[in-house]
């Protein structure tokens, strides 16, 4: 199994403003490499996905492409064609080879996660207090955030991938080596334009899927009409004003060998970098999407009166309303007088 050389990619990371430090990057690379040796042959490819900050220690994340997954209910969980296409492992100690596998993500978790914004605590076993309620603990919440980030930010220069006409549903595959040699490297001035990039991972729709819902039938076996939900086409173009691109070095130092850095504006911390014949994607952030409308706590309500007098009470008291009775100042335990029986 081939593991990308993080020491080599670190130069591209720096152009994107990501720098873990040379020593930490080397230790992280050794940890990923050692962990990859423990994986089964079912895992065909791994890469460093990125890091998500928490209120405690950050999560370092590995992405792996595996074979078939366990059988699931297709009405609740989308399989390898959707949000569970990849398997993810996390660690909070880059010097350790102990990487924890995250659970699969369900449609309900994706829908719930989109409706709330919550920082991670740094404890995978911690409960999630959110509204609407999130069905799962923090390991599921982390996995859901990764699925949303990957679907929205995994992009590549146009031409790196092409459609596989023989697969059903159609998926993207890397173009043949001969075709890549003809198309790349592209001039940096061309790659800094948004039209020169494509999504090689499909974004999740409002149901948390990339494919249509499986057909349902009633008791008579007739198909049940379901609500139509828009599906994102493979190798879709980037959303308008969804990315910003720059060259590095730029200005007077710009040249054909410059790297092109793209920053996603929806998920701050998601970066795509292209240089020469290669490109990379990495996410380093807190797992919170950008929201142009900041949260403002509601103002407190008016102070409630102790009581509200009725119209009859106001008329009986000449508009004063209820009157408080005079406190009764009697000894609750009066002394027993002499001659009285107790």
Please give a structural write-up.
It contains 7 helices and 12 strands. By secondary structure, the chain is of the alpha+beta class. Strands 4-3-2-1-12-11-10-9 form an 8-stranded mixed sheet, with helices on both faces. A hairpin with a 5-residue loop joins strand 10 and strand 11 (270-275). The longest helix is centred in the N-terminal third of the chain and has 16 residues, at 22-37. The chain is elongated. The model has no long low-confidence stretch (mean pLDDT 87).
Q: How are strands sequenced across the largest beta sheet? A: 4-3-2-1-12-11-10-9
What is the share of helical residues? 10-25%
- Following the backbone from N to C, one meets helices and strands in this order, namely HHEEEEHHEEEHHEEEEEH
- Could you give the distance between the termini? 96 Å
Mean pLDDT: 87
Specify Rg, calculated over alpha carbons: 30 Å
Net shape: elongated
Assess the beta-strand content as a share of residues.
15-25%
The DSSP helix count reads 7
- Strand runs, count: 12
User: Low-confidence parts lasting 5 or more residues at pLDDT below 50?
Assistant: none
Structural class: alpha+beta
Q: Can you summarize the main beta sheet?
A: 8 strands, mixed
């Amino acid at each position: 199994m081939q593991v990308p050389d993080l020491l080599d990619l670190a130069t591209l990371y720096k152009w994107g403003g990501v720098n873990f430090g040379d020593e930490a990057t080397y230790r992280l690379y050794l940890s990923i490499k050692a962990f990859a040796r423990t994986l089964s042959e079912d895992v065909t490819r791994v890469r460093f996905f990125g890091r998500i900050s928490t209120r405690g220690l950050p999560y370092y994340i590995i992405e792996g492409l595996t074979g078939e997954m366990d059988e699931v209910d297709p009405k609740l969980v989308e399989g390898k064609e959707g949000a569970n296409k990849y398997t993810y492992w996390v660690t909070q100690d880059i010097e350790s080879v102990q990487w924890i596998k995250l659970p699969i993500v369900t449609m309900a978790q994706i829908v719930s996660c989109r409706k709330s914004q919550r920082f991670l605590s740094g404890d995978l076993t911690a409960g999630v207090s959110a509204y609407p309620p999130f069905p799962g603990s923090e390991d599921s919440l982390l996995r859901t955030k990764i699925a949303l980030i990957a679907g929205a930010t995994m992009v590549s220069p146009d031409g790196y991938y092409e459609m596989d006409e023989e697969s059903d549903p159609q998926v993207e595959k890397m173009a043949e080596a001969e075709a890549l040699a003809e198309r790349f490297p592209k001039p940096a001035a061309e790659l800094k334009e948004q039209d020169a990039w494509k999504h090689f991972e499909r974004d999740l729709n409002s149901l948390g899927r990339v494919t249509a819902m499986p057909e349902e039938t009633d008791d008579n076996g007739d198909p049940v009409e379901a609500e139509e939900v828009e599906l994102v086409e493979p190798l879709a173009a980037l959303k308008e004003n969804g990315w910003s691109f720059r060259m590095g070095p730029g200005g007077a130092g710009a040249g054909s060998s410059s790297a092109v850095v793209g920053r996603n504006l929806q998920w701050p911390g998601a970066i795509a970098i292209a240089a020469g014949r290669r490109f990379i994607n990495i996410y380093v952030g807190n797992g919170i999407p950008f929201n142009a409308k900041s949260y403002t706590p509601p103002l407190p309500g008016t102070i409630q009166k102790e009581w509200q007098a009725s119209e009859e009470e106001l008329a009986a008291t000449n508009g004063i309303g209820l009157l408080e009775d005079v406190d009764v100042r009697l000894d609750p335990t009066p002394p027993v007088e002499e001659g009285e029986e107790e």
